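Morning F.,

Quick status update on the modeling queue. The single chain you submitted on Monday has been processed. Sequence for confirmation:
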Amino acid sequence: MTVQREAVSENNAKINLLGKSDDELQNFFSGIGEVPYRGKQIFGWIYKKHLDDFNLITDFTKSLRSKLTEVAEIKYPEVIGVEKSRSDGTLKFLLQLADGNKIETVLIPREKSPDDAGLLRETVCVSTQVGCPLDCKFCATGAMKLTRNLTVGEIISQVFIAQRYAKRQVTNVVFMGMGEPLLNHEAVLGAIRILTDDRSMNIRAKGITVSTVGIADKISLLASEPIKFRLAISLHSLDEEVRTLLMPINKKYKLERLIPEVKEFARSRHDRITFEYILFDKLNDTDADIARLVKLSREIPLKINLLRYHPLSHLSKLGLQVDPVALKLNLSSRIEEFADKLREKGITVFVRSNAGEDIDGACGQLAAKNIRKHKNSRVNV
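Structure tokens below.
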């Protein structure tokens, strides 16, 4: 039997073990001439104790610790900026990756969960790409364009870093930060497997939500994943023309293609789907829009999250000829009116909080302009 071996790269760069699965860690130890079960031993040290120093691994001999120090590392992104919301305590982290690229991560503390009988949560909103290629007209990240996908290690490190600052155990992870998760689905699923492992953070599957604009041909891949995390669809309209105006990706993945995939996902998982919906005045908030959402609720078990549009002051134009409801009309009364009309039809509706808005950490606000503005900023938390 041939054992797969992993060697140090040709330029003698150390191998970063952060993000490697159980099998990959065992293969690594085989590759450096050690017994594979060392990989199982180190798994908990990396992912449960969040270790970054091999010399602290008491299970290993001094010679093995020395060997590991020579060929490997457990390297996290550097935290170069932290901002704290004065209104709700939300924290936004500016992280610099090994190649110099930067991403943002958000920790939303003490948020009450309607689905969990008012239990307190610590939620981390993680990024999956440096930038984003989709150019949704209400999202600042899309203006960055795409630089590259994040690795498994870069994704899970965001949760581990946020945990250092959290006042209690992280309970929820939402893939709603920079980037489109389903355009990096392999790394996203790899991260979910590690985060939910009982030898790691042991985050419950229902505490993880993957949000997508609707990359239809990848949704079936998610449905086949044994870990039963939740799916959220960034919807914003059930009219093909309007949705294309808001989200150009709808040209490729039209609703007539997307909705059947989502319906099948819900059927196979026996779970509700979350549909995210930002209101725009006279564009997607009419009685016809309510009727479309009611019809959808008859086909797919769902809940609807109504979101406030968060102004993007650093962008010159959204490219829209309409006004967001949040800017033109009284926010609370207008959104609640829309929500009440849906509730009268038996639809579960939540009006999402605008946590972190004052630090540009709310939905749609993570962006390169903010990254440059907040460089090397720190607060006491």
